[in-house]
Amino acid sequence: MEIIHVSAECYPVAKVGGLGDVVGALPKYQAKLGHITKVVMPMYRTKFLYENDWELVHQSSQYLGPQWFNYNVIKEKTNKLGFDLYLVDINGLLDREKVYGYDDDTERFTSFQIAVCDWLSSWQHKPDIVHVHDHPTGLIPFMMKYCYAFRHLADVSSIVTIHNAQYQGWMGWDKSYYLPAWDTWKGGLLEWNNTINPLASAVKCAWKVTTVSYSYLNELKYMSNGLENLFEYEKGKSVGILNGIDNEVWDPATDHFLAKNYDAEKVDKGKSKNKKEICGQFGLDGDKPLFVFIGRLVGEKAADLLPDAISSSIYQHHGNCNFLVLGSGEPDVESHLETIKHQFGGYVNTYIGYSESLSHLLYAGADFLLMPSRVEPCGLNQMYALRYGTVPIVRSTGGLIDTVKDFGEYHGFGIRFDQAGVWDITYSVGRAVDLYYHKKNLLTWMQQYMMGIDHSWESSANEYLELYEGLK
Ligand code: ADP
Ligand code: GLC
């Protein structure tokens, strides 16, 4: 089969969060299973662009409403990522350093999607599957079916994967003229609550809808930022497929970001060497359990609870714990964290920003990973933590339910709690502190057990292929 993934992110080209990881890995594993997989994404000005060789494969122009634009499609020459990588360049719109966060994101991603459909329509043959991811590519299933210019694609199967339904790409009806002429009888397929809603449109128009975990699929029917009824209505064509992780990139035995590589047998020694490195760098005490948080400092991740949860844990557990936070996001949360870092010097430190290398070192050197998320469609951090023998402490939501079992249960290996609240986090930190100081053997068993759990992409990649096959 020939599968086209269209996405705003793809690791290592451009990554903001887990979407990048997934689109950097799933196509590679599909290619390993013998399929032709292609990833198409915007040509941002990131390091990867300048460090690799490219060839021009297509050049054309299109319209965003009355505005004419030129676009180029370039291809990475060596297939070094394990799939064909194509970047779409639109000067003035996509030539930016960051992926999201510009005032003209609507114009940027709409023109990108128009260019993609235009390019695919120019092919002599048709691909088997167009697989889009989240709202920045959510208008494609509609455009493939109902824009007259792209009729060539009308019978090509499209699939949308929902990585996060909190963001939907809303745009006012006054911008409907951006889309190339379309069948206006079908306007209802663009709309939700009086606006054009690209994510809702994808759910309505794609042939299949997938979510990145089973539990998230259920959750969406009662908590999806306004789309609850839609997910209930479309449940017949929706399926949950748990994300995998790229075991080649995330392997403590070979990871070159670590101070010491290790496997399950040497987990004790390996982790303590990495922990020593972290504690040295951040002025923390290597004899105490190290709790880390890695991620976007936003409400979804319940990052706003961290400052109070950390200070109350330090008081309640008599200073027998250390905390390190790696992330960036809401300015209030960042400054609150800076305050407690000064208040609890030697117990708390932060790295406000993004660092791929530090994240790897933390998964390896930490004893516990905190994920109090209010919303977590899948979550990759906890799966990386498992692979590196770090106990995840998670709220019972979305993909965290599907991947973490509390150590109080038979063969449990993590810590779970129910409420995204300071008390639940502090209590769970207490259970972890107790494990660390008083149940060392159990902790080592848990570490070794979780390192043996297989969350690699192989099985999930197959589930997607079965889904595609069903559309033939
Ligand atoms: P989300 O996509 O919602 O942010 P995921 O758990 O799916 O959450 O994926 C987050 C990914 O981003 C992981 O690979 C994590 O290691 C990475 N990440 C998040 N914040 C940072 C950061 N500040 N520095 C390095 N990596 C980060
Ligand atoms: C989103 C979700 C996260 C998921 C990731 C990859 O960013 O917030 O839970 O793991 O996508 O699917």
Low-confidence residue ranges: none
Question: Which ligands appear in the coordinates?
Answer: adenosine-5'-diphosphate, alpha-D-glucopyranose
The CATH superfamily of the largest domain is: Glycogen Phosphorylase B
Strand arrangement across the biggest beta sheet = 3-4-5-2-1-6-7-10-11
What is Rg? 23 Å
Alpha carbon gap, first and last residue: 10 Å
Q: Tell me the CATH architecture of the largest domain.
A: 3-Layer(aba) Sandwich
- DSSP summary: helix tally: 16
Report helical residue fraction.
Answer: 25-40%
Total beta strands: 17
CATH topology term of the largest domain: Rossmann fold
Major sheet description: 9 strands, mixed
Q: What top-tier CATH class of the largest domain fits best? A: Alpha Beta
- What is the residue-averaged pLDDT? 97
Helix/sheet category: alpha/beta
Shape: elongated
- The amount of beta strand, in percent, is 15-25%
User: How many separate domains make up the residues?
Assistant: 2
What does the model show?
The chain is an alpha/beta fold. The protein folds into 2 domains: 2-244 and 457-469, Glycogen Phosphorylase B (Rossmann fold), CATH 3.40.50.2000; 264-451, Rossmann fold (3-Layer(aba) Sandwich), CATH 3.40.50.2000. It has helices at 18-32, 47-50, 105-121, 140-146, 198-205, 214-220, 228-233, 267-282, 306-316, 331-343, 356-365, 381-387, 398-403, 422-438, 440-451, 457-469, and strands spanning 2-6, 36-42, 54-64, 67-76, 84-89, 129-133, 157-162, 191-192, 195-196, 208-211, 238-240, 290-294, 322-327, 348-352, 368-371, 391-395, 415-417. It has a 9-stranded mixed sheet with strand order 3-4-5-2-1-6-7-10-11, with helices on both faces. Strand 3 (54-64) and strand 4 form a beta hairpin. Helix 1 (18-32) crosses helix 16 and helix 8 (267-282) crosses helix 11 (356-365). The longest helix has 17 residues, at 105-121. The protein is elongated. The protein starts with a strand and ends with a helix. 51% of the residues are buried. The model has no long low-confidence stretch (mean pLDDT 97). The protein binds adenosine-5'-diphosphate and alpha-D-glucopyranose.
